[in-house]
Amino acid sequence: MDTEAERAAFFKLHSDLPREGPGVAEDVGWAADLIDLPRHAEIADAACGPGGDIAALLAAAPEGHVTALDLHAGFVAQARARWGGDDRVTTLKADMTRIKNRHDLIWCAGAVYFIGIETALRGWREALKPGGAVAFSEVCWFTDTPCERPRAFWKSYPAMTDRAGIDARIHAAGYEIIGQRQLADAAWEAYFGPLDARIAALRPGADAALAAVLDEAEEEAACWRNHRDEWGYLLSVVRPA
Known about the structure:
8-stranded mixed sheet; single chain; Rossmann fold; methyltransferase activity; globular; alpha/beta
C-alpha cells in the first residue's frame, strides 16, 4: 500500500469484517491444550484485528484476561465495540512489538510477517511468564515446486518459506517447537466467506484504487482455493528454549 488512496481502499474493504485472516476457534483450543493453558491465564492477542479470536481465547482461559492490541484504530474500535463490556478484555491501540507485562500466552494470527519471525519471537521473550508460550500462524509453502500462480501472488513476500525454513527461524530466535499444524480449510473459509461478500458489495462503482484492492483480494482467495495443497498457514506453538 504505497499511496494514501491504496491504504484507504484497503481499509474500506476490510472494515467490519469478523476477522482479518484465516482461523477458527479450534485452532486456539488446540494451542491452549498443547501448553495446558491455565484457566486464569494472562493472554496477549498481538495484532488482534477486529477481535476475531478473543472469544476463543476467553473460552480457553475463562478466568483469565486477554489484552488485545492492534495499530489500526478502526480494528481497535471494532474490537472494543464487541468486547468493551467484558472486564476480562483490555483493547489497546498499540504496537505488537511492544507488549508490556508478562503473559502465559502470546497469540498472533497471521501477523508476524509484518516484522519477521525472529524479530517477533526475540522481542516477545521478555513479555512471557516463566513457562509461557507463543502461538503464531505464518504463510508457508507446502511444496518445493509451487505453480506459477501462487509464486506470482507471493512474489511481494520474498521471506515466505517452507516448514523447514520456519523451524530454522524459530530455533534461531532461541525457541523450541511444542507443536505445529496446518490450518484447515474451515479456517480459510471463515475468512474468505465474509470477504467474498464484502467484495461483491463494493465492486459496483468502485474507483481504480478500490478496484485494484478488490482484485488482489479476489486473487488471493482464488489462488488458495485452487492451490491449497501448495501453500497455506502453519500454526506453530513455541516456547523459549
